[in-house]
Amino acid sequence: MKLRTKFIIYAVFVHGLLAAMAYFLLQENKLLFIGMEVLVLLSVVLTVNLYNAFFKPLNLIRAGIESIRDKDFSTKFVQVGQPELDELVDVYNRMIEQLRQERVAQAEKHFLLEKIIHASPAGIILLDFDNRIESINPAAERFLYLSGQSLQGSELATLPNTWARELKQVQTGQPYTFRLNGIRTFRAHRAHFIDRGFQRAFIMLEELTEAIIKNERQAYEKVIRMMSHEVNNSTGAINSILDSVQYYTPQIDEAHREDFTYALQVAIDRNANLSKFMANFADVVRLPAPSKKPVQVQALLKRLERLMQPQLEQRQINLSMKLPTTPLFVPMDEQQLEQALLNILKNAMEAVKSDGDVWVELQEQPPCLTITDNGEGIPEHVRPMLFTPFFSTKETGQGIGLTMIREILLSHGFQFSLESNQDGLTSFRIRLAAEQTK
């Protein structure tokens, strides 16, 4: 039974008893009866005032509790002139104002945090209580080439390519650096935070590719320039000496002239090869900035097909092209891209060797070019080293081809990858759209 009900029952009982006593006084003394009636009326008035004095604060408290329960921190009460009630109103108003300010501050901080996460150049993967992906920010979407909505509720083990393997190795509080496809380098951090009293985790991804490539380029450009300077100075002096020595060829005895000429020619050829060797390295350093203009990709690929046809027939390699019927125009430096694609096709042919297949597929939306071969594939231990400047698995290789490809594609802003899948197919994929500035 509520307190209000108890009070009303008590007041009705007392006043009913007083009314009964007044009835008995009416039979004995009318003056006492009138006095008793006045007393009853005064008691009723006093009871009503007490009822209002007692239960108005309760109504106020109830209304305040309902506002707090509904999370409505904008409702305040006006003082009524009663000291005790006004003190209660003042305390409630101060409390509700503090709650309102704290909620506004919390909402503003939450909004600011969401904006920072959304605009952050670092990728952020937020995990739920079961270590499943709850959300990822736009930077992480760019890194993974996937939307956050498609990954929501997924485990890290379901991420594509080598992401799953690498992110599973990230330990809390220990930065972990790894390389994807031999070109993209990332540093991952795993940390925890408290949400509703329970621990949750998030992973932050920072791409180091641009900084590492810049440092690598500065290092090998300096070395190549120094080597080229020294070699050119030496070969120039040697060529001058060899030209002078050739002048004395008729003066050599006929019995030794052939050996002399042969030795001289070997020296000249080796000197020329050394100059050509250094020129190949210098070409990487002297690569100019791309002069971009719209180029029809289908026409470029068809031209490369005709150029490679004799070598394809000689090796008995089948080249298949899957091109969209609608002409696809992409801003690029046609000469540089032609050189890069030519090197990619040559690498695919060398991987196949003979009696194999190479597939070229051009995707229109989003613009993407994929060159696939069924050659030997890329060994696991070699994959992290791909696109490392001047790295080569060939005995006589200089590692210039992939380095040149890397520099051309990076200067165009095209993202690319080189991977071998479980079916033994190796694919070089190029996204023919300049990456947006982060």
Number of separate structural domains: 4
- As residue ranges, the low-confidence spans are none
Task: Compute the separation of the termini in Å.
Answer: 67 Å
Total number of helical segments?
Answer: 11
Shape: rod-shaped
Order of helices and strands: HHHEEHHHEEEHHEHEEHEEHEE
Main sheet strand line-up: 2-1-5-4-3
Question: SS-based structural class?
Answer: alpha+beta
Cα radius of gyration in angstroms:
43 Å
User: How many runs of DSSP E, i.e. beta strands?
Assistant: 12
Helix content: 55-70%
By CATH, the superfamily of the largest domain comes out as: Histidine kinase-like ATPase, C-terminal domain
Question: Quaternary arrangement of the chains shown?
Answer: single chain
Catalytic activity: ATP + protein L-histidine = ADP + protein N-phospho-L-histidine
GO biological process, one term: phosphorelay signal transduction system
Enzyme class: transferase
Protein name: histidine kinase
Protein architecture, described:
It is a single chain. With 438 residues, the chain is an alpha+beta fold. It folds into 4 domains: 3-107, no CATH class; 119-208, PAS domain (Beta-Lactamase), CATH 3.30.450; 212-286; 293-431, Heat Shock Protein 90 (2-Layer Sandwich), CATH 3.30.565. The protein contains 11 helices and 12 strands. The strands form 3 sheets. Strands 2-1-5-4-3 form a 5-stranded antiparallel sheet. The protein has a 5-stranded mixed sheet with strand order 7-9-10-12-11, covered by helices on one side. A hairpin with a 4-residue loop joins β9 (357-363) and β10. α7 (209-247) runs antiparallel to α8 (254-285) and α10 packs across α11 (400-412). It is rod-shaped, with a radius of gyration of 43 Å. The chain starts with a helix and ends in a 7-residue tail after the last strand. 14% of the residues are buried. Keywords: ATP-binding, Kinase, Membrane, Nucleotide-binding, Phosphoprotein, Transferase, Transmembrane, Transmembrane helix, Two-component regulatory system. Its main location: membrane. Its EC number is 2.7.13.3.
